[in-house]
Amino acid sequence: MKRKFLTRDRREALDGFLFISPVVLGILLFTAWPVLQSFYNSFTKFNVLSPAVWVGLDNYRDMLGDEDFWHSLSITAIYTVFSVPLGLIGGFLLALLLKREVKGVGLFRTVFYLPVVVPVVAAGILWKQLFSPTFGFANELLQWIGLEPYSWFSRPESVMPSLIIMGLWQCGGAMIIWLAGFNGVPAHLYEAAIVDGASPFRRFWQITIPMVTPVIFFNLVMGLIGALQVFGQVMVTTAGGPLNASNFFMLLIYNKAFASLQMGYASALAWILFAIILVLTVLVFKTSKSWVYYEGDR
Question: Are residues 64 and 50 in the same domain?
Fold first, then answer.
């Protein structure tokens, strides 16, 4: 008796491969292939209008003498150093305020989370109006307390703080993760601490904080990746100005690729950014073993 080639197990496996094939093909065609193509382009001189010419490591060597490269890298680093900790603290404080189950708390959670789902372009236009030097709400508030109006996005010394404040508006995303972390702390730990006479601050410092370190770790990694790739809100509000004071690394890549048509150089910049994000993420993962606590580990 001949055995069937398509047995039940093989038929189920074939059906599974057929169902996932659109996703796999999409990833290969629209993600993996462009990534490999950009890696090749980073070693070429390519302006889209003519075939790519192999130049080896010239694009990477040119970065060392490119003032725009170092300037963009430095202001991106400054933005990351300030925005990531402030975003962590802002989301943490919001979650701490809204973790209590009181009447109407769901409405407040929704209100604070709404900025996260607002499109980047809409958010940029909104904040550009809020910080308008003529009729913006920020200057109206300054005048109300007796101060002079201020040009928020129009001055090199104030554009970075303005963008950081704008970024904090969306800390509701981190707030949701913090809330999930707070709700995951076992209640019996607090009960045991209360029985032992621990003060609220001691319970917070020795129970809450250690138990939510995985949340700190997650928000830190996601915050680093997001801050280093900031683009949309800056493009809408300042487009890199004034005087290149907000010309972030992603804007430099965009301008080199689509304004100057230096696709090869832009690809090399993109891979440098990828390397920076990879190194920082690996460092966070390596150091996390000493400060991130998982309940089942100890």
Answer: no
Q: Give yes or no for a contact between 231 and 255, defined as CB atoms under 8 angstroms apart.
A: no
What whole-number distance in Å separates Cα of residue 59 and Cα of residue 64?
9
Rg of the Cα atoms in the chain: 25
Cis, peptide link before residue 242, omega less than 30° from 0: yes
pLDDT digits (tens, 9 = 90+) for 258-272: 999 999 999 999 999
Range of 28's domain? 8-54
Question: Based on the domain organization, do 109 and 168 belong to the same domain?
Answer: yes
- Model confidence pLDDT, tens digit, residues 109-123: 888 999 999 898 999
- Tell me the two tokens of residue 64: 């060392």
pTM of the model as a whole = 0.88
Q: Is-contact 88 227, C-beta < 8 A?
A: no
Tokens read off for 213: 């370190």
The answer to whether 253 touches 273, Cβ cutoff 8 Å, is: yes
What's the CA gap between 268 and 252, in Å, rounded? 12
Closest C-alpha to 188, from 92, 93, 295:
295
d(CA 151, CA 118): 25
